[in-house]
């Protein structure tokens, strides 16, 4: 059933909280929307697996303003659904975000904070559109099928993806996001911390053991701090394995926004990254595990393909 094109289609992706935090957050959001006189319909995801289905439902029902109340992974699902429709239809749809995830890196790039629902809602009301780029990873899965997946923020190959995977596992046991991240980081001290990779970036061929490679169309959780999603390029940081003292220094630089100053970090800017191999390295895309990737894979840029609502 078609809807009024001025109505917002809102997808609420709850994050795990204690003491009724999720209910209070949603109530506050709906109060702000009512105070601003916004006409909207809201649906709530039951799990990460349901996000794409619900985004597809909102698109099929004719909503022209899609509002994702969630983090980078939920935004990733939304833009991948949009990329499955024809360009003419996609050009008539705009995506807004109300940050409600773990890191909210892409929202933070535009100055949006999860503590300020009012500012995020006002941004969407003002309807200032910026057409942004998407990165795209093309690979073969374990069934031998050619696959691709788009990303707004970054792809991590190696250690960071491994930490994210451990964090998800420990979070299911511990509940707390912060505690699960700390425990995951400590577990990594006894885990594989380098991976044999072979890749080509611009004119450089890199074939050696590496700790992590981050390919960012956005900030890349601090690893590609100068990347912007509108120049037709991705930033790449190649991190070799430092000594343990240098590792802690690298973490300090990461948290203070000076990651590229570390001597074990090699930065690049390019339109294409070709991996010939990344044996045993996990791959994370916008904070979520990609799954089984067989052999070589390539990362490129799709220029100006999604309308994003910015401050």
How would you describe this protein?
This protein is of the alpha+beta class and 311 residues long. The chain is 30% helix and 33% strand. It contains nine helices and 16 strands. The strands form two sheets. Strands 1, 2, 3, 4, 5, 6, 8, 9, 13 and 16 form a ten-stranded mixed beta sheet that branches. Strands 12-11-10-7-14-15 form a six-stranded antiparallel beta sheet. Strand 14 and strand 15 form a beta hairpin. Helix 2 packs across helix 3 and helix 7 packs across helix 8. The longest helix has 16 residues.
Short description:
30% of the residues lie in helices and 33% in strands.
Which key phrases capture this entry?
alpha+beta; ten-stranded mixed beta sheet; 9 helices; six-stranded antiparallel beta sheet; globular; 311 residues
